[in-house]
From TrEMBL:
GO terms for molecular function: DNA-binding transcription activator activity. It comes from Arcobacter venerupis. Signal peptide: none annotated. Pfam families: GIY-YIG, Sigma54_DBD. PROSITE patterns: GIY_YIG. This is Sigma-54 DNA binding domain-containing protein. Residues 262-353 form the GIY-YIG domain.
Length: 373
């Protein structure tokens, strides 16, 4: 293994925020007089660790995962080459940057190769449970480079990435065992007839080859607020069937036409394909509300739609289905349903972009006599 003088590496370099490290590279290194002089004298060459990079400056993430490929911000792929020591030991600064950039690049590349399936599906049950000591051992074998738990912790705690327009900490790919176990338990409770924790212990071993005690199962359930048995009033893991004004119907002009005019309520869009959310799978793609559902649903059958994402999804998927709930207080109902969906599935419905936070005053829905408007 290469003997790299890691004691030369300034510890705070790993702890720097995205913006601080970027400014350090730009101001203290690339724009400094000693660096420009050394480049002019051809004492320094700039190379890059990979050709897969992007140049547009980001706010807070080092790299992005796009179309099954990793793209780093260009400056974080820099590797300096120098043949001799520079004045005032400035070559040590370049060495420190080389070590940090190369280590982060290798750690990220290796980690993403391990979690390839999860990154494809975004379904937490597809995520591999990674032991950090084993990861370090395999990393050293693969790259013949130094890595320890301290450096690894600093990297995963201080590095962010973008995936599907969302920013995540690298720790997202290093989940705790108990968290993954909680998802297995939740999946079993929703899909199997569970009587007690002993039943869960048995099924965890049979289905997932996980051997843990009854007490551990109980502790995990309590920690992650998982009920012992499935809640019977939840249908399709999200909405209450009894509240729906119509059963799930295909999104067509004919089916929309028969709806009442000026119908206020909440609506759900779903597809034929099952979508993998972080915690569970479901066909629901959007939950919305309107004081005129008929008019809103009509927009989805034309070239334009309520949002760009919905428009593109409908264009790519022929069969979309809808169902609605009649309610005057539609914003409040929408908020509750979306929050329920997030709690159960671990994320917003695929085409929703944000939660409903501000709900109009309930009095707006009634006139002075107390009757619905």
């Amino acid at each position: 293994m290469k003997k790299i003088s890691f004691y030369l590496l300034i510890n705070k370099l790993y702890l720097m925020s995205f913006r601080t490290y970027l400014n350090y590279l730009k101001t203290d290194i690339l724009s400094s007089s000693w660096f420009k002089k050394a480049c002019k004298e051809k004492k320094i060459k700039i190379k890059f660790l990979s050709k897969s990079y992007f140049c547009d400056e980001t706010k807070d993430y080092y790299f992005k995962y796009e179309k099954k490929n990793l793209y780093f911000f260009k400056l974080f792929l820099i590797k300096f080459e120098y043949q001799q020591e520079l004045e005032n030991n400035n070559h040590l600064k370049l060495l420190n940057i080389n070590i940090k950039n190369e280590t982060i690049f290798k750690v990220v590349t290796f980690l993403f190769s391990i979690q390839k399936l999860f990154l494809k599906t975004n379904y937490y049950l597809d995520m591999n449970i990674i032991d950090r000591k084993i990861f370090i051992s395999e990393y050293i074998k693969k790259y013949d480079s130094y890595l320890d738990t301290s450096i690894l912790s600093k990297i995963i705690n201080n590095t962010s990435y973008m995936n599907e327009n969302k920013i995540y900490k690298l720790t997202n790919l290093f989940p705790k065992k108990t968290f993954i176990y909680s998802l297995y338990i939740k999946e079993l409770i929703h899909s199997e007839s569970i009587k007690n924790d002993d039943n869960l212990v048995e099924l965890l071993f049979i289905k997932y080859h996980i051997k843990i005690s009854r007490r551990t199962v109980c502790n995990i359930r309590n920690t992650y607020l998982i009920p012992r048995t499935k809640k019977e009033n939840l249908i399709d893991l999200t909405l209450h069937t009894k509240d729906f004004y119509v059963e799930r119907k295909k999104l067509t002009k004919k089916n929309i036409f028969i709806l009442e005019n000026d119908l206020s309520g909440v609506y759900e869009l779903s597809s034929e394909k099952t979508i993998s959310y972080p915690f569970l799978k479901n066909k629901v793609i959007y939950i919305g509300s309107s004081n005129n559902i008929k008019k809103r649903l009509k927009t989805y059958t034309f070239k334009y739609a309520h949002t760009k994402n919905i428009k593109e999804f409908i264009k790519e998927n022929k069969n979309i289905y809808f169902r609605i709930i009649r309610t005057l207080n539609h914003k409040e109902f929408e908020r509750k349903l979306i929050n329920s969906f997030i709690n159960i599935h671990g994320d917003l419905p695929k085409l929703n972009t944000q939660r409903v936070l501000n709900v109009p005053n309930e009095n707006n829905y009634f006139n002075k006599s107390g009757f619905p408007v």
